[in-house]
TrEMBL record:
Presence of keyword Oxidoreductase: yes
Keyword Transcription regulation recorded: no
Native source organism of the sequence: Amycolatopsis keratiniphila subsp. keratiniphila
Domain of life: Bacteria
Protein name: NAD-dependent succinate-semialdehyde dehydrogenase
Database matches in InterPro entries: Ald_DH/histidinol_DH (IPR016161), Ald_DH_C (IPR016163), Ald_DH_CS_GLU (IPR029510), Ald_DH_N (IPR016162), Aldehyde_DH_dom (IPR015590), Aldehyde_DH_Superfamily (IPR050740)
Length: 487
């Protein structure tokens, strides 16, 4: 760990709005506090943007768009590459900052900084690979030219659970494509985004290309920008409920949208699976980010012949996880983001036990300070338990046995969500058959982690629209233009 102190790392961040390349206080001078979820205490105050500040940020993005679109793709890529290197160089202090505002253990924060930086490295490489086409028209007389251009100024909204990576997954392709942007991080974790903005400026991103709004009034500030008509795209990561509302707002001016929404991932373990690998994968899929991930395994379906053994081993692993403040050495289970999150998880567990689920370990809140909930395993979870249909977003693993493949697939698909599904089996034919039948944008086949900047991340059904990362990620920020050529 670097020698930088907790107070030092918080002090080092600019806490104003980043508009047109300048750090500015909110026009009305307001600020709001950022809390440490492991203590409930305020870390600092940041500028609280008003709707008027929002318009200033959009003005800056609009003003910068034409020049930015003309910057050579190689130069745009090199800015991203420099930002990638700065992120890696400062990973320790950025990880500490993230742990302080979000709560996840330091090792996970460090992992997220690397993951976040990798989006910049990937899109630095993609910036110079934007393709086009030239073709002879079917009647032979004309020619088609096809080229891709930046969508235009974008609005980006990110959640608190991955405060840096959810930003770079949008900023990387937007920069690579030649779009300017206004980004609004979640009020609970604005510091990582502010630190990222400073890094991008240091890496040479021109004024106005990236504008950052921190605000305690996300709806009040963003809705007028969505309805303004000058921004041409909204890219949102967050809950399905908010996503739905934003889609309605976007309809007004027909904005392009990318929606990375909620999940309810099933985790299927067949009797022929490598049980060691399945338990290991279950720990990753469940406990990464303290269970506060859209990709978190939300429902475990385990074939009846191995359900007791799987449950026993998972319980042993969950019981052994050290809980505490994310800055403490060896901690794996940090605090949840806020009191409401603890109440929600607690309510879901009570509902499941009232309907007949049994607690194998955990099942309780932890006395404060901080928003802690025990790592929990539930078994015999009935179908109608609320946690079978709602995102738990906490360290709770509900297990339900199944008998047949058809039964497991039907249970897995019985949800409005379709982000990711996990399957453990050693039978290749079953692996492919089940993967094809699962209704999800991503499948973890014998692995508990799917996220990779080089792969297309995203969901189907009510888990979203569009993909981030991979070779398709940049397309979300490009428009295709066809030029009909008469010869
Ligand atoms: P959220 O409540 O939907 O908030 C997400 C973002 O939207 C935050 O920046 C929030 O700002 C903002 N927001 C809330 N209401 C808004 C409104 N009316 N207008 C404009 N912006 C608004 O979600 P969350 O609790 O932060 O994040 C957890 C959710 O995100 C989970 O459902 C999770 O599955 C999902 N998620 C999905 C992915 C994916 O890639 N599919 C990745 C990560 C997380 P404030 O919080 O400041 O109000």
């Amino acid at each position: 760990m670097s020698s930088i102190s907790e107070a030092g790392v918080v002090t080092s961040v600019d806490k104003e709005l980043f508009i047109g390349g300048k750090w500015l206080p909110a026009a009305d001078g307001k600020t709001f506090p950022v809390l440490d979820p492991s203590t409930g205490e305020a870390l600092c105050e940041v500028a609280d943007a008003s709707p008027a500040d929002g318009v200033s940020a959009l003005d800056a993005a609009v003003a910068a768009q034409a020049d930015w679109a003309n910057v050579a793709p190689r130069e745009r890529g090199e800015i991203l590459r420099r930002a990638y290197e700065l992120l890696i160089k400062r990973a320790d202090e950025l990880a500490l900052l993230m742990t302080l505002e979000m709560g996840k253990p330091l090792a996970e924060s460090k992992g997220e900084i690397t993951y976040a930086a990798e989006f910049f490295r990937w899109f630095a490489e993609e910036a110079v690979r934007i393709d086009g086409g030239y073709a002879v028209a079917p009647n032979g007389t004309g020619r088609f030219l096809v080229t891709k251009q930046p969508v235009g100024p974008c609005l980006l909204i990110t959640p608190w659970n991955f405060p840096m990576a959810m930003g770079t997954r949008k900023i990387g392709p937007a920069v690579a494509a030649g779009c300017t942007m206004v980004i609004k991080p979640a009020a609970q974790t604005p510091l990582s985004m502010l630190a990222l903005a400073a890094i991008l400026a240091e890496a040479g991103l021109p004024e106005g290309v990236l504008n950052v709004l921190t605000t305690s009034d996300s709806g009040g500030v963003m809705e007028p920008l969505i309805r303004d008509g000058r921004a041409r795209k909204l890219s949102f990561t967050g809950s399905t409920g908010v996503g739905r509302k934003l889609l309605e707002q976007c309809a007004d001016k027909v904005l392009r949208t990318s929606m990375e929404l909620g999940g309810n991932a099933p985790f299927l373990v067949f009797e022929d699976a490598d049980l060691d690998a399945a338990v290991e994968g279950a720990m990753t899929a469940k406990m990464r980010n303290i269970g506060e991930a859209c990709t978190a395994a939300n429902r475990f379906y385990v074939q009846r012949g191995i359900v007791d053994e799987f449950s026993r081993r998972l319980t042993e692993r969950m019981e052994a996880l050290p809980m505490g403040r994310g800055t403490e050495e060896g901690v794996v289970v940090g605090p949840l983001i806020d009191e409401a999150a603890v109440e929600k998880v607690s309510g879901l567990v009570s509902d499941a036990t009232e309907r007949g689920a049994r607690v194998l370990t955990g099942g309780s809140t932890v006395d404060g300070p901080g928003n802690f909930y025990q790592a929990t395993v539930l078994t015999d979870v009935p179908k109608d338990a609320r946690l079978a249909s709602e995102e738990i977003f906490g360290p709770v693993a509900p297990i339900t046995p199944f008998d047949s493949e058809d039964e497991a697939i039907a249970a897995a698909n019985d949800t409005e969500f379709g982000l990711v599904s996990y399957v453990y089996t050693s039978d290749l034919k079953r692996a492919l058959r089940v993967s094809e039948r699962l209704e999800a944008g991503m499948i973890g086949l014998n692995q508990g982690l799917v996220s990779n900047p080089a792969a297309p991340f995203g969901g189907i059904k009510q888990s979203g629209l569009g993909r981030e990362g991979g070779t398709v990620g940049i397309d979300e920020f490009l428009e295709t233009k066809y030029i009909a050529v008469a010869l």
